[in-house]
Amino acid sequence: MDFIDWIILGIKIGALLIALLSVAPVMSWVERRGSALMQNRLGPNRVGPFGLIQPIADAVKFMFKEDPVPGHVSKFYYVLAPLIAFIPALTTFSVIPFASSIEVMGRVVRFQVADLNVGFLYIFAIAALGIYGVVVAGWASNNKYSLLGSVRSSSQMISYELSMGLSVIGVIMIFSSVNLNDIVRDQGNVLFHLGQFAIPKWGIFVQPLGFLIFLITVFAETNRLPFDLPEGDSEIIAGYHLEYGSMKFAMFMMAEYINMATVSGLLATLYFGGWQMLPGMHTLLESFSLSGSLSGITYEWVRIVFEMFSFVIKVAFFMWFFVWVRWTLPRFRFDQLMGFGWKVMFPLSLVNILLTGIFIKVM
């Protein structure tokens, strides 16, 4: 890599970090306003128009709030735990492509921090490290509620991560690749024509059962309702982060929101065409090209903007879906959660692999 390549990489890393660190304040506002909308309340509406400045006020409060370390905790591991949860969350999004590539002055620029051949296997491997932060936090807090929350989280993750990994095998079988760029590119093909409409080869059309399994399991993996047993307030107060406050608690919260963004990006990439343009956008772009309004490098940059916009819309939809489900479904009991994971999700993920093999053989 020469100097220009390092500059481009630095710009991509910086832009991605800014976007990910902005997820927590934005989603905290969305959660509050969304819950208020569903419950016929106002929600935050005092600090700025529609309460838009409220997340900034919260961030300032977290940064300047007193942060004492309780005397009964294991101090080193107590401080280390939020970092163990936060750092893997920041690194997982780096392999998700948010647009295709463009050639600028003979140099191909990819809109992806790291184009790894192992693709989403890297995401699964790094994201699994985050559970250590939860387990260490529960143990180091020296509190029975915190410990119970961390044990719940580890058992829940083991139970549902297996089904999540098996559900993605169907995608590998269909697209014959674990590289996310290859999977997104292949989803741009036409699956079949329905009258005048072309149905794209998106993952949701060729893997509907796999999509449903993956969608349910990511709720469990991110500890979101109805799978938020590790922090069930009605049973164990606040679970693994009971003894945490100020920026240490904020790091756990940010890690959860960033993990939500990562799995939303993965859902969009594997099952909704990733950066493939939304219906009608390609036609609009081609009409601009035919009219002479766009040509050359200008056309290419507009295409990249359209692809980024399509990807962001898909990710935003799933982020809102997390909020929607939170205020719609009640929390599981823990025995129901474990039974559902092993008795329903795991067998269904195996059935999905069998059906995918039959589908490939028949087609």
Order of helices and strands: HHHEEHHHHEEHHHHHHH
Count every beta strand, where a strand is a DSSP E run of 2 or more residues.
4
The low-confidence runs, each spanning 5 or more residues with pLDDT under 50, are: none
**In oligomeric terms, what are we looking at?**
single chain
Give me the side-by-side strand order of the main sheet: 1-2
Radius of gyration: 22 Å
The tally of structural domains comes to: 1
Q: Helix/strand/pairing class, anyone? A: mainly alpha
Separation of the first and last Cα atoms: 43 Å
Largest sheet data = 2 strands, antiparallel
SS element count, helices? 14
Q: Which shape, going by the Cα principal axes? A: globular
Helix content: 55-70%
Rounded mean pLDDT is: 85
User: Strand fraction band?
Assistant: under 5%
Summarize the structure.
This protein is mostly helical. The chain contains 14 helices and four strands.
Explain what this protein looks like in three dimensions.
With 363 residues, the protein is mainly alpha-helical. It has one domain. Helix content is 66%, strand content 5%. The protein contains 14 helices and four strands. It has a two-stranded antiparallel sheet. A two-stranded antiparallel sheet has the order 3-4. Helix 6 runs parallel beside helix 14 (334-362). The mean pLDDT is 85.
List descriptors:
mainly alpha; two-stranded antiparallel sheet; 14 helices
Write the layout of secondary structure elements.
Blueprint: H1 3-38, H2 54-64, H3 75-92, E1 101-104, E2 107-110, H4 120-127, H5 130-140, H6 144-175, H7 180-186, E3 190-194, E4 197-200, H8 203-206, H9 208-221, H10 233-236, H11 246-271, H12 281-290, H13 296-326, H14 334-362
